[in-house]
Amino acid sequence: MSPRKVDKAARRKEILTAAVKVFARKGFAATRIDDIAAEAGMAKGSVYLYYDSRDALLEAAFEAYRAMSADIFDRAVNGPGPALERLAGLVHAVLDVLAARREPARIMVDLWAASRDAEKSPVDMAAVYGDSRAAIAELLRQADKEGVLRAGVSEHHAAVIVGALEGCLLQCLVDPGLPATELAEPIIQVCLEGLRRPAA
Amino acid sequence: MSPRKVDKAARRKEILTAAVKVFARKGFAATRIDDIAAEAGMAKGSVYLYYDSRDALLEAAFEAYRAMSADIFDRAVNGPGPALERLAGLVHAVLDVLAARREPARIMVDLWAASRDAEKSPVDMAAVYGDSRAAIAELLRQADKEGVLRAGVSEHHAAVIVGALEGCLLQCLVDPGLPATELAEPIIQVCLEGLRRPAA
Amino acid sequence: MSPRKVDKAARRKEILTAAVKVFARKGFAATRIDDIAAEAGMAKGSVYLYYDSRDALLEAAFEAYRAMSADIFDRAVNGPGPALERLAGLVHAVLDVLAARREPARIMVDLWAASRDAEKSPVDMAAVYGDSRAAIAELLRQADKEGVLRAGVSEHHAAVIVGALEGCLLQCLVDPGLPATELAEPIIQVCLEGLRRPAA
Amino acid sequence: MSPRKVDKAARRKEILTAAVKVFARKGFAATRIDDIAAEAGMAKGSVYLYYDSRDALLEAAFEAYRAMSADIFDRAVNGPGPALERLAGLVHAVLDVLAARREPARIMVDLWAASRDAEKSPVDMAAVYGDSRAAIAELLRQADKEGVLRAGVSEHHAAVIVGALEGCLLQCLVDPGLPATELAEPIIQVCLEGLRRPAA
DNA sequence: TATGAATGAGGTTTCATTCAT
DNA sequence: GATGAATGAAACCTCATTCAT
Predict the structure, then answer these.
(1) Which among C110, C103, C108 is positioned nearest to C29, based on CA atoms?
(2) Distance C47 CA to F3 C1' (A)
(3) Which domains does chain D have, with CATH numbers?
């Protein structure tokens, strides 16, 4: 009559969470479906009821990553307050995420590896960084309209800011000794203050 | 004396070069010993006469990467001229390497992945970045002695500069559309000019 | 009495019909219980309420095939009219079944495969062909009594007639271009006229 | 210097022979690569050095079957002597092969099953039977030119003869009790004598 | 009775590594 | 030293069957 009923979406999320955990711990290449199933507390075959393949799980992890990234950047672009303050908040937000949950961030290296050939792979980190640069560029335009930027700030500077962020994340990832949150202010100083119009 | 010693080292280098080429092209995970042997123009078994395992080849690739990186940074630290000019030269040098030979740089993502567990793996990117930060910090100290830095420049700023460099490399790697060399000047502007003491 | 007995039998038949359809379409080896359940419009688990296993369904398909075959042959043996006319009618009947519903006939190859080891498998095509030969032999005896056969017609000739029938079916199965019904008359000519006593 | 050298073609043949043996014994569906490797006296992985997949082995078995079949029919078509005698010889040859080596013939049912969907599968039994019919039809034309056939013998009679042959083979396959060789003469009588022009 | 989620044994295929020549 | 055939341990994925609801 009332056969076992599961919330498919919830189950997918459970499995994805487990997968991300294991990917973060062992790396995608070294992760076995068995590991994910064990982490999720189910049998190997059950994973396949919700995801078609191991690659599909990485892809799902990418989508989640992309959504999270987009969310952070969107909030900065569309939020209230002076543009440069929102940019500073963005820097803090990104590093806080890493500091709060180191593991999930570790899958980034697997996402980079998976997006090696942009055409063949659905994991498209180029698009993520493109979006990030566009968001930062928009923030810089907003700041420029506010008249707080010095002259000559171009699109390329957005790439540098994104780079500084990701590059600091990267260092924190490979070197657990580096304190992510403490890098926020230096990043802000270097990247933003350097672009700010000198106070008369 | 040792009639074949030179040959042995040359052979190792040949194989390593081939391996790096294939790693760059297909990624470490997708690289087969067969691919490397084919690229090196020899039989699969012969690879094992010079390297103990597939992992040993990645390790060797890491050592080469580390050496190259150390070389670039050392030259900047020990070179002649004003410190900030050497720092600017360093930025150009790093990005020029990427622009000149995109493929070899691609192995970085595999090195990152391999250095996931710092203890177990001989691939230790944390050390590389630690060295890089130390070099930049030394450059900043030199610049400070020259009196060209504004006050309050700390070790963390070195991390930001390394981060900006690596983060821009990363974006260029993932997105072939981004022109590496064109990012050099923006990086220099953002990272260095922002730290420079305002001209009286 | 037993309120659901009729339903149970009907349900079994529904499932069997669905199974035969899918077996015919995809072959037994490629048929999944899911396919059968879908074809029958029920859930996978329900199939197991009526059949113990996938093999049991093939066995049931075999029984149905055997019954149908026995029916056709029995009618020819016990029917009215001259024996050779009944034999000719039998040939037409067999080929007409194939022409009418090509799909169900396709399961024959799966039945042959399943009857590979006569001891272990309940699918026993040897018995079916044995019965067929016996029926044909009986028809030939009847014809002999009617005095219309030439001398020397033995049991083996029954095997040849069965063989010609099945062999033509096989060709039609494998080659959709061959028109089953058009083969009836040639079969009759070759097999029967050749055995008929030359008209004085 | 002189590294291990194997005759690739010979090795392929060895493996194919082993595969055919196991296919015949257990059926294609029930045959595991392990079984084939064991039968060939090698490790599982070695099989894949010579054949790409299990399906490729069935395909190879088909090619061998097709070649053998073509050979027998070609010899009958192009041989010396009266056409009907060659046809009779053909019948004996086909049944003798079965009698001599029952096992290899058993793979026929797997070939039939595999040729279920003519487009997708490289196993094309329809083509084999088409060739067989063409050969028989040619023989009948030759016999007709020799003036030994009665009138009205058409292409369809070739199908009947092929059918009688295959149908008898089939019965012998599923019923080990049926003696293949003893069916040769009845087949010849039914199929050929029935077509022969009555001696004045 | 009906359901369909869960299971896990089992099969194919890959490929790093070994080793006989 | 060089070769490349052979190995066999994994790992992915499938799917018949079970069973809680």
Answers:
(1) C110
(2) 57
(3) 1-51 (1.10.10.60), 58-195 (1.10.357.10)
Task: Provide, as residue numbers in chain A, all residues whose Cβ is less than 8 Å from the Cβ of B115.
Answer: 174
Picking from C118, C164, C173, the nearest residue to D164 by CB comes out as C164
Confidence at residue D108, expressed as pLDDT on a 0 to 100 scale: 93
User: Whole-angstrom Cα distance, residue A188 to residue B155?
Assistant: 15
Q: Would you call C194 and D189 a contact, using CB atoms and an 8 Å cutoff?
A: yes
State the pLDDT at residue A96: 94
CA distance B188 to B176: 21
Interval D88-136: pLDDT, tens: 999 999 999 998 888 778 899 999 999 988 788 999 999 999 999 999 9
Say how far A115 CA is from E17 C1', in Å: 30
Indicate if CB(A32) is under 7 A from strand F: yes
User: Tens digit of pLDDT for each residue in C64-86?
Assistant: 999 999 999 999 999 999 999 99
Assigned token pair, C132: 């067929």
pLDDT in tens, D134-155: 999 999 999 999 998 888 888 9
Name the least confident of B153-157, C57-61, C63-67.
B153-157
Number of helical (H) and strand (E) elements in chain C, helices listed first: 10, 0
Q: What is the 3-state secondary structure (H, E, C) of A147-183?
A: CCECCCCCHHHHHHHHHHHHHHHHHHHHCCCCCHHHH
